[in-house]
Amino acid sequence: MSDRRHMVLLTVLLFVSVVSVSAFVEELDDSFLKRKEADDIWLIKFYAPWCTFCKKLDPIWHQIGSELRSLGSPVQVGKSDATTATGLAKEFKVINYPAILMLKKNVKYNYPGARTKDGITDFAHRVGGPLIRPLSSQQLFQHAMSRHDVMIVYVGATSELKGNYTLAAEELIIHTYFFSATRDVLPKAVSLPSLPAVVVFKDGTYFTYSEERDGDLKLWINKERFPNFSQIDSYTLYSMGESGKLVLLALVEENLLCDESQRSKSLVEAVAAEHRETYRRNFYFGFMVDTNYISGLMMSEVIVPSYIVVNLSSDGYFLPLGTVDTKHHLLDFLDGVMNGTIKSQGGNSITQRTRRLIYDAKVTLTPVFSQAPLLGCFLVGFPVALAAVFCYLCCKARPTLIDDDDDGVALLAPSLQHRKKPTNKKSD
Fold first, then answer.
1. Catalytic position from the list 51, 258, 377, 394
2. Is CATH 3.40.30.10 the classification given to domain 227-371?
3. Which of 74, 218, 291, 326 shows the greatest Cβ crowding within 10 Å of its Cβ?
């Protein structure tokens, strides 16, 4: 009897915990835009009931809602079934699932990162807070430095540069934090040629923006918002493409790194640190453990460990001409990419896009055929059958031509031609 009561109690506690966690996430319908307040801040997930990725994200989403509520965040968390709340989905231009966005004072911010709890929560804190966060003391500055790999800081009073900085922050806040400070808050070792200034702190050093040298401020920030060397996933790699820089990657195993993979990773890290001034304007450096994105780019299986330079702006890539065993070999590889002796492969031409589409379909369907042959045949055969029926109907509907030998002209088929009434002609 006691065991039964114990099971009932556990069931009740589990039910209460699920209900309490779910209470932090509100289901939104088409009436949302009419009833929300102007100052509300919402983090919203659009999903479809049949979407596998949406189902995997659901428990994470409820954890995010619970955590933001417990921290007293002003961000409210919601979710919406895009297949039923079609008006709301159309308003926010939802195309893919799950779509994650934040609505702050009627401005929409799309989440561009990995579907992880930490990534989404950081996005909510970043966008939901002040656009530019003031650092009013050295303690606050050092605290921010300890928490962020890259810090973008405006230093000085109100100016035209600060206006441009604010405009850049409004667009790039989805990617990184923006700070402001006075000169006395910065470490004494930081030397600024003039004020106001925009400074990026990263990799144990700092870089100061110069309009004459660096051009547009927003483009410069977009180029400098990544560490020089880091672990890179597919979302980060895609974002790096917007910077215009190339990315040198060491492709390694996903779990425990072998000695060769560890050596490849260390080699790239050493080049990034020791030759930063030579290559930092043209390259980012990192290592990648999930190589599915690179496999799709190359349309072939990736060998690990190996090296590749990726140009995300054109979907191109560069491969070493020979074995890379030493730092000197790796530097020769980078120099060959820069001077054009190593040619780019891939690209985003129509031919390449078509080939990638076929490759992606092959990769997707191969496991289906191996595990469920009948389902695979249906997935391939059904579209082909529809296309064949469509082509047949089109051909059948087209008028056929026949030659009339007597008149020497082409007439429509008898079922479609208009017959002329005979006319009597008088002969002189």
1. 51
2. yes
3. 291
Q: Sign of the C-alpha dihedral, residues 48, 53, 59, 60? A: negative
Residue 368 per-residue DSSP state = H
**Residue tagged active-site, from 54, 258, 377, 395:** 54
The secondary structure of 211-245 as a DSSP string is: HHHH--HHHHHHHHSS-SEEE--HHHHHHHGGGT-
Across the range 288-303, mean pLDDT stands at 88
Beta strand segments in 3-142, E: 25-27, 41-47, 75-81, 99-104, 107-110, 133-135
- Mark whether 391 is an active-site residue: no
How many angstroms separate the CA atoms of 250 and 167, rounded? 35
Predicted confidence (pLDDT) per residue in 363-375, tens digit: 665 655 555 566 5
CATH of domain 130-225: 3.40.30.10
**Residue ranges, CATH 3.40.30.10, the chain:** 21-113, 130-225, 227-371
* Token output for 28: 């939104």
Residue 419, pLDDT score: 40
> For this structure, is 51 an active site residue?
yes
Query: What's the whole-model pTM score?
Result: 0.76
* Helix locations, 187-326, DSSP H: 211-214, 217-224, 234-240, 259-274, 276-279, 292-298
Model confidence at 36: pLDDT above 90: no
Lowest pLDDT segment from 188-192, 207-211, 332-336, 388-392: 388-392
Residues ≥6 apart with Cβ < 8 Å to 124 = 43, 64, 68, 73, 75, 102
Residue 1, pLDDT above cutoff 60: no
Report the C-alpha gap between 387 and 393 in whole angstroms: 10
- DSSP track, 132-183: SEEE-SHHHHHHHHHH-SEEEEEESSS-HHHHHHHHHHHHHTTT--EEEE-G
Please tell me whether residue 406 adopts helix, strand or coil conformation: coil
Class of domain 21-113: alpha beta
The per-residue pLDDT for range 177-219, each reduced to its tens digit, is 999 999 999 999 999 989 999 999 999 999 999 999 999 999 9
